[in-house]
Design brief:
The protein is mostly beta strands and about 170 residues long. It contains one helix and twelve strands. The protein is globular and about 50 Å long.
């Protein structure tokens, strides 16, 4: 999978709630518009972090690169989600079908396939806790018909994800 702007990445939303975050504070050092984002805070290793969706990128007058994140809880975006459930010695070990209502995590270990940041695994390949990002929802009536997605072999699926953002985990 490659990092790219999805043509229909936003399924539905409340009002956007945006905040500028210095790009250097993001887990992904090369942020891309429409990708999920996780802020590298003090407690992200315990599954707690500010998460959101990159709406735009910019640079301050002083030269600091920043990303504008939508951090509004309950907004729904269309993302690639890896169906990994567990790891064994940094390798994916088990997989499962992704279904509506399943929790989705931002993998902070950097071991996901290129351009994929989200999975269904609460623990990541680095034996750490992944940050809870949101929950799987159907984007459209037709999309709801496609669940469960994936299966018991490794795959990456496009899913509607209702983000937690600045809400509670």
């Amino acid at each position: 999978m490659t990092e790219a702007i999805n043509h229909d990445y936003q399924c539905s939303s409340n009002n956007l709630r945006t905040w500028e975050i210095p790009s250097a504070r993001l887990i992904d050092a090369s942020p891309t518009v429409s990708n999920p984002a996780c802020v590298n805070g003090l407690d992200y290793a315990n599954g707690e972090a500010l998460t959101g969706v990159i709406i735009s990128l910019g640079t301050t007058a002083g030269g600091t690169a920043f990303a504008v994140l939508d951090v509004a809880p309950a907004n729904v975006y269309y993302f690639e989600v890896r169906n990994v459930l567990t790891y064994d010695q940094a390798a994916e070990a088990t997989w499962g079908a992704i279904n509506i209502g399943d929790p989705v995590y931002y993998d902070v270990s950097g071991t996901m396939p290129a351009g994929v940041y989200l999975s269904t695994a609460p623990a990541n390949a680095a034996a750490g806790t992944s940050v809870k990002f949101g929950h799987v929802v159907g984007c459209t009536v037709a999309d709801m018909e496609n669940y469960p997605k994936g299966g018991i072999t490794a795959s990456t699926q496009y899913c509607g994800v209702m983000i937690i953002g600045a809400g509670t985990n």
